[in-house]
Amino acid sequence: MSIDPLVRGRVIGDVVDSFNKSVPLRIIYSGRTVVNGAELRPLAVAGRPRVEIGGDDFNIFYTLVMVNPDAPNPSNPTQREYLHWLVTDIPAAEGLDSGRELICYESPNPTSGIHRMVFILFRQLGRDTVFAPLMRHHFTTRNFSQQYNLGLPIAAMYFNCQRETGSGGRRFRPGHE
């Protein structure tokens, strides 16, 4: 039995509760489709990704949230969660470009450690029912979902990101097991 990558990456637990994926979600940076747990460097994710969402019903709208639950450092995530992007009122039949970007895309640029960058997709109850938070840091996906009656996610995806000169893995430091 294989473990869900969102469980293995602690996205389910740290960011969202367990949910059933009901809509296809594809995140594409510079022609490269993101797979859960992939390693992407800041230069590869500097520009806003292309996002493809399944669905063709003109009466359904989605909200897309992108957060970093590991800011500013995975060992001490005092800004958990950091909101990198928020797009609402995404029509299922038209896609992300027809939605409202409430918080503009801020490219990930971690200074230390490996950070998870998480995309979460919610179904809205209707158009113009979700609004921007006051701050990017200390955002909480669960609270945001509850505040705007979004319920559980309908899709999610994440990738790992570290600074350009990072080593590619978590370092073991003797005495810090």
UniProtKB/TrEMBL annotation:
Ranges that cross the membrane: none
SUPFAM superfamilies attached to this UniProt entry: PEBP-like
Q: Which InterPro entries match?
A: PEBP, PEBP-like_sf, PEBP_euk
Q: Where is the signal peptide?
A: none
Know the name of this protein?
Answer: Flowering locus T
